[in-house]
Design brief:
single chain; 176 residues; alpha+beta; seven-stranded antiparallel sheet; SMI1/KNR4-like
Length: 176
């Protein structure tokens, strides 16, 4: 397969034995969300999900050991509980509060990565919610742009260590 510059595969390398989620699994996730997810995010999950990226970033898969829908539901509940009283929530995050999509979890410090849905026809945004000190980092761009910051530019959110394997499957993953 030819890699397209700026694509998920050009950033992470060839997919390693990951079985894409079935259309039905994606429909279940998107039905719960009430909207379609961005294609670059689905490509990332289908190609590299149920694994840990960069040594610490857990990326669930719809059919993985910790199914994506369960992950999203639990993380959204926790996020709303933990951040409900935080002041100075960035506007893109506060405007989409009930529609935020938890999509990855950083196991070094508990930070959660969120997909912020676009207002009427715009582009998705990525936000990182810092758990150690309730603040946010908003990246104006989708998952591909976020991964480019991490992998091409070497920029990490505050407190994220560098190093670690680029991709490591979860033990006993049913999709790898």
């Amino acid at each position: 397969m030819t890699e397209v510059p700026g694509s998920i595969e050009s950033l992470l390398g060839e997919r390693e034995r990951v079985r894409p989620a079935s259309a039905e699994s994606w429909r279940s996730v998107e039905a719960w969300l009430g909207r379609e997810l961005p294609p670059d995010y689905k490509d990332l999950v289908d190609g590299y999900g149920d694994a840990v990226l960069l040594g610490h970033l857990f990326l669930p898969h719809p059919e993985g050991g910790d199914p994506l829908l369960t992950f999203m539901q639990e993380e959204r509940r926790y996020f709303h509980s933990a951040y409900g009283e935080v002041r100075n929530i960035p506007e893109p995050v506060s405007l989409a509060w009930d529609q935020l999509v938890p999509w990855a979890y950083h196991d070094w410090n508990g930070d959660v990565c969120l997909l912020v849905p676009p207002p009427a026809g715009g582009d998705w945004t990525v936000a990182v919610a810092f758990r150690q000190c309730p603040e946010f980092l908003v990246i104006h761009g989708g998952v591909t742009e976020f991964m480019q910051l991490l992998l091409e530019e070497g920029k990490r959110p505050r407190g994220w260590p560098s190093g670690g394997p680029l991709w490591k499957p979860m033990a006993d993953s049913p999709v790898v």
